[in-house]
Amino acid sequence: MNVKIEQGWKEALSSEWTKDYFVRLTEYVRERYRQTQVYPLPSQIFAAFDATPFDKVKVVILGQDPYHGPGQAHGLCFSVPDGVALPPSLLNIFKEMSTDLGEPVAPGRGGNLGYLCEQGVLLLNSTLTVEAHKAGSHQGKGWEELTDAAIRALNDGREHLVFLLWGSYAIRKGAFIDRDKHLVLESPHPSPLSAHRGFFGNRHFSKANAYLEANGIEPIRWL
Predict the structure, then answer these.
(1) Which residue of 31, 32, 104, 115 is most buried, as measured by CB atoms within 10 A?
(2) Quick one: which of 17, 78, 16 has its CA closest to 48?
């Protein structure tokens, strides 16, 4: 199967494209796009991989599934396109960045996190598609197997990466990551329902940069 995705990722995940689960997943997703409103746009399904090539990844942030409201999802977890109102979780992410790094959030700061991808931050949802107004509607269809394979490829094929796991779902998904090769930081989710239970004050952004610098890797300009 010829999957249109960044070449490094295409090679890293080459064994997945012909597996039965991926063939079934592809058929399912194509049918859902024909029958109903699905996010993101088909051309943006693999946007996280395209924006952060396999050999450029420094930091991985794991999300669950795309935003399911109109105009919000564009293939990068927690991110929204320019001109779209910031979702509550993203507002909290910016708040923690600002507090942690001692830098103000620029007035009128938009929610497009593509500038992080350009620096090596992989913004990966576990499930890459969702139906309008139906959170989690494409979970359990095969996406999780593909994104597990992506995390495993990074875990096995790279060293000194930082994995930011926010919330119980991401923590479970990243349980197999080798803590001797990589830095794994865990905390509650930035959602307003849980941010005050430990997301605020986790200092993940400065800790990530300290680890990268200690290993001779250029830090991330988070803000």
Answers:
(1) 32
(2) 78
Instruction: Give the max Cα distance, the chain.
Output: 50
What pLDDT score was predicted for residue 195? 98
Which H/E stretch holds residue 50?
helix 47-51
Phi and psi based region of residue 140 (left: phi greater than 0; alpha: psi -120 to 50; beta: remaining): left
As a whole number of angstroms, the distance between CA 189 and CA 95 comes to: 13
Eight-class DSSP state of 43: G
d(CA 54, CA 154): 8
Q: Which positions are annotated as active-site residues?
A: 65
DSSP one-letter code for 42? G
As averages over each run of 10 residues, the pLDDT of the chain (223 residues) reads: 92 97 98 98 98 98 96 98 96 98 91 98 98 97 98 98 97 97 98 97 98 98 96
Please work out, in degrees rounded to the nearest 5, the angle formed at the alpha carbon of residue 59 by the alpha carbons of 57 and 65. Answer: 100
Measured CA distances, 104 to 12, 51, 99, 160, 220 (Å) = 38, 26, 8, 29, 16
Closest listed residue to residue 174, CA positions, set 96, 15, 61: 61
State how far the Cα of 87 lies from the Cα of 91, in Å rounded to an integer.
6
Q: For position 63, what pLDDT does the model report?
A: 96
pLDDT of 59 reads: 98
